[in-house]
Amino acid sequence: SVRFDDGFVVNVELAKTAVEHQQGLSNRDELTDNSGMLFLFETQRKPSFWMKDMRFPLDLVWIDGETVVGFEENVPYTQTDPLLIYSPKTEVNRVLEVVAGTVKAHGVEVGDHLDIDLP
After folding, report:
1. Residue 75's CB: how many other CB atoms inside 10 A?
2. Backbone angles phi, psi at 18, to 5 degrees
3. What is the pLDDT of residue 2?
4. Does residue 52 contact residue 78 with C-beta atoms inside 8 Å?
């Protein structure tokens, strides 16, 4: 799980492998407000995300360790050609995908500490 500064908890599925990273939340009909996907990377990097086969908008939270270093809000799921690519401005080792509006609703800001509890 991931706990935000305001106490809000997101129950996360983990994406650790290249296959899991590529699949992400594609081809799902919905995501509940308190669920998400946490992408884990073994090394610091600037990963690229796209909305291929997505059916709902997302917020992407760029995370270094347990610190928010940036985010993309309300990333649309409409399919453009070519697909838009989203990447953090700095290297990260974790990325959290949550329902669009989560960042704003919970006042997430750069520099926030997240309590990340991995199984």
Report:
1. 18
2. -60, -40
3. 98
4. no
